[in-house]
TrEMBL record:
Entry's localization field: Nucleus
Domain 3'-5' exonuclease as annotated: residue spans: 51-196
Protein name: 3'-5' exonuclease
Species whose genome carries this gene: Aromia moschata
Entry keyword annotation includes Nuclease: yes
Length: 225
């Protein structure tokens, strides 16, 4: 719709046929997006809740960083609860993925302190932490607030923000979410269904329970023998 100099409304230059064609195009684009496959992780999940187990894995990652000749680029993410009354809760989960086949999930909500190996690994000069908004917003800053022993300035230096990097190399510039990045670069979708996340959590808890039962059985066997 256009407006003339006298303020009178003029008929739109877009014909009915053009509007119909545009509507068909939008419908096809929506259908194409809906039919895109969900991105799936097919690697190994290593879930730890005890300080000693977290420390061992962090020490292993640190040794790996020390031995590498190139930069060690790792996926990094954190999770915590949020309340509109009290604000963000303490860091609950730290996820570290040193390659496409392995993801360490450290459930740290009950830990008072984090392993020294973790702070040394995250601040190592050969390590680069990648994630969306991890530098600009909460993740590494929140980690330094929630736990002692972290040099927030050093952590920020090691961060590669995927949204910022995308705007520097892709022809499209926008405020990127992880969902938009997956959609644009991989032509795939992220499964936002809470049931999917719950199933992963329950699977990990079941695996943890099985490991505990194996340990207990082994201890009983040792005592009996």
């Amino acid at each position: 719709m256009e407006v003339s100099a006298t303020g009178m409304k003029l008929r739109s230059r877009v014909s009915a046929a053009e509007k119909e064609e545009q509507a068909k195009k939008l419908k096809l684009e929506k259908e194409a997006w809906e039919n895109r496959p969900f991105i799936q992780y097919k690697g190994i999940l290593k879930y730890h809740t005890e300080l000693i187990d977290c420390a061992i894995q962090c020490d292993n990652l640190l040794e790996r960083a020390k031995k590498t000749d190139d930069l060690m680029v790792v996926g990094f993410d954190m999770e915590w609860s949020f309340s509109f009354e009290t604000g963000p809760g303490k860091t609950a989960v730290i996820q570290i993925s040193p390659d496409l086949n392995t993801c360490y999930i450290l459930h740290v909500s009950k830990l008072r302190n984090l392993p020294k190996g973790l702070s040394e690994f995250l601040a190592h000069p050969k390590v680069r932490l990648t994630g969306n908004n991890i530098k600009k917003y909460f993740d590494v800053r929140k980690l330094a607030r929630d736990f002692t022993g972290f040099d927030v300035d050093r952590l920020i230096e090691n961060c590669i923000d995927l949204g910022v990097m995308a705007n520097s190399i892709l022809p499209v510039k926008q405020r990127w979410s992880l969902e938009k990045l997956v959609d644009y670069t991989l032509n795939m979708k992220i499964n936002k269904d809470k049931k999917a996340s719950l199933m992963i959590y329950l699977t990990l808890k079941e695996r943890e329970q099985q490991e505990m039962e194996k340990e207990q059985n082994q201890n009983v066997n040792n005592v009996i023998s």
